[in-house]
Amino acid sequence: MESVIILVLELAGTLAFAASGAMTGLKKNMDIFGVCILGLTTAVGGGVIRDLILGNTPPATFQDPIYATVSVVTSLVLFLPQVRRLLMWDQGLFDLVLFLMDTAGLAIFTVVGIRTAYAHEPQATVFLLVFVGVITGVGGGVLRDIMAGDTPYIFVKHIYACASLVGALLCGLLWHYAGEMLSMLAGGGAVILIRGLSAHFRWNLPRAHD
Amino acid sequence: MESVIILVLELAGTLAFAASGAMTGLKKNMDIFGVCILGLTTAVGGGVIRDLILGNTPPATFQDPIYATVSVVTSLVLFLPQVRRLLMWDQGLFDLVLFLMDTAGLAIFTVVGIRTAYAHEPQATVFLLVFVGVITGVGGGVLRDIMAGDTPYIFVKHIYACASLVGALLCGLLWHYAGEMLSMLAGGGAVILIRGLSAHFRWNLPRAHD
Amino acid sequence: MESVIILVLELAGTLAFAASGAMTGLKKNMDIFGVCILGLTTAVGGGVIRDLILGNTPPATFQDPIYATVSVVTSLVLFLPQVRRLLMWDQGLFDLVLFLMDTAGLAIFTVVGIRTAYAHEPQATVFLLVFVGVITGVGGGVLRDIMAGDTPYIFVKHIYACASLVGALLCGLLWHYAGEMLSMLAGGGAVILIRGLSAHFRWNLPRAHD
Q: What is the DSSP letter of A157?
């Protein structure tokens, strides 16, 4: 049962990040293959980095085609003229969908990353769990931005990695007390809450030259 | 005998990708060391990523100096004023040589990647073989473009990763039926054919805003 | 005793590279979290790449929080208005501190990288030792520049990777004759000497279009 929930979560995160990568590719006017590659990289990048760090080779993405399939199908659907026209009809809608997809992916991948780290290293410290969770969460987006030639989102936009970090801390600290499911729910919820609030109230962290 | 052919192929691919990296460095007016590093990164990058994914550590490049030596010597030769003058004498010639080198490297590294994946994971699915083959083929070029500050070639230029993917699929599917050598020949040939035809006829994949 | 010296060196290198990453973030007007991430990436990036290449997973950085702690605290201190004002009061001072930090980090990480490679692969050839040393030395800075959207330092600035290479060669060649400590001292000293001299006398390597 639990493993089914995890798989559904992973696929939802994959879909969300694939969509955010593909939409970045559409914005940059990439061709259909470029859009698919950017969708795929964004969706599986965080997990591949996570598995390399944990010494879990070949990474899960390479062993089970379902993640790549979901990523590519998502990218192809977003490339359909009808879908694109719908999304591009309104810049506000496009940006909102991109934001929601990115937030959902960040929340899911952060807590799934912690779970994978824990499964692979049962003696892991909270430090390792949190570190691996954040890298799984933000890794795909950083690869997307580097490959698309943008400054990585985590450096410039609203509270992003910060949301992942707080969610990962919450999830990692609760792990031994509240059990897997509750910890993941609390951590993922915190990520979505913090990102949502910070975007709505335009919270920003202090900068050097304000 | 077979291992000699593989080594010759690997060295030819290394030479080709080192040349494409070094020529990118020359275009950017890098100094002699920068040209060598870019040649080296392009030539060995795909293989290092492949070995990390397969858990094959330290990667082959780090164990046998021949790949790094070929890369650096190739880069140094291209830096020679006489060679540079010859190449830069004609922009068309320069671009043609760069194209041929890049295509040869892509074809060779794609099929060699599949072979390495198969040797390391004999139970590998076709999916894993193809995925690893494409990453080995395009990985070095992606690193080259990211390090040189360009948008990765695979996102913007003629059918590139697409050629690698078709060649990898052909090679991976034939593997158990046609044997190693024939599969690699067919896969590599397909990569060269598709890239050559697409460049000649200026084929392009559909874009979002045409 | 020796392991204490190594730890002190590693922490000094971590501090130096964290400072160079954080100062790059300050220059780019990143927010406080971005400055910390860039400091952290620069400081631990080289070591993480090194450990992945050696198959040493999870990398040391993920197992012991001290490296991340030093990186983040260093970045936070540099973000303090008082410290920033002091550094930014004089562009020359800022650049000098950045240069010194970067050089110290390069020297320390190069020789520590060789030591880690040797500890992990006692049968390693000098080639592997040197290669891993240089990657440990320059890896963090390359990640910093790629993430900050700059052309990697190693391609454009004064003799940089070249200094790391000469120091690594010296250290790797001496290893079996002069012992660990002396080799690291000689190698690290060579890095600092070469970078210092090349900056002072504005040495540059030849370029293609001079």
A: S
Q: Determine whether the interchain pair C208/B37 forms a contact, defined as Cβ–Cβ distance below 8 Å.
A: no
> Closest Cα to residue A26, out of A100, A84, A70?
A84
Which pLDDT score, from 0 to 100, does residue A210 have? 55
Using CB atoms, which chains have 3+ pairs under 8 A with A? B, C
Quick one: CA torsion of A152, A157, A159, A162, rounded to 10 degrees?
Answer: 10
* Cβ contact C62–A156 (<8 Å): no
How far is residue A180 CA from its own chain's centroid?
19
Task: Determine whether B176 is exposed, middle or buried from the number of CB atoms within 10 Å of its CB (0-12, 13-18, 19+).
Answer: exposed
Q: Contacts of residue B128 in chain A, CB cutoff 8 Å? A: 58, 62-63
Distance CA A194, CA C116 (A): 40
Q: Can you say whether the dihedral through the CA atoms of C26, C27, C31, C37 is positive or negative?
A: negative
> Taking 90 as the threshold, does the pLDDT of residue A204 lie above it?
no
In total, the C-beta contacts within 8 angstroms joining chain A to chain B are 70
| Residue A122 burial (C-beta neighbours within 10 Å; 0-12, 13-18, 19+) | exposed
- The more confident residue out of C161 and A182 is A182
In chain A, what residues touch B131 (CB-CB under 8 Å)?
Answer: 61-62, 68
Give CA separation, A77 vs A18, A36, B45, in Å.
Answer: 11, 10, 32
List residues of A whose CB lies inside 8 A of any B CB.
25-26, 28-35, 37-38, 48, 52, 55, 57-59, 61-63, 65, 68, 79, 84, 146-149
Candidate ranges A124-128, A152-156, A200-204; pick with highest mean pLDDT: A124-128
Return the amino acid letter for A126: V
Tokens read off for A69: 């399939």
Quickly state the pLDDT bin for A208 (edges 50, 70, 90): low
- Residue C157: pLDDT band (50, 70, 90) is low
User: What are the tokens at C47?
Assistant: 């070591």
What pLDDT, in 10s, does the model give residues C143-153? Answer: 998 888 887 87
Contact B155 A65 (CB under 8 A): no
Residues in chain A with CB shorter than 8 Å from the CB of C55 are 55
Rounded CA Rg of chain B: 17
pLDDT digits (tens, 9 = 90+) for A10-20: 899 999 999 99
Q: Where along chain C do its domains lie?
A: 2-200
What ipTM was reported for this prediction? 0.83
Q: In B, which residues are within 8 Å of A37 by CB distance? A: 154-155, 161
**Residues of chain A neighbouring C147 (CB-CB closer than 8 A):** 142, 146, 152, 155
Per-residue pLDDT band at B106 (split at 50, 70, 90): very high
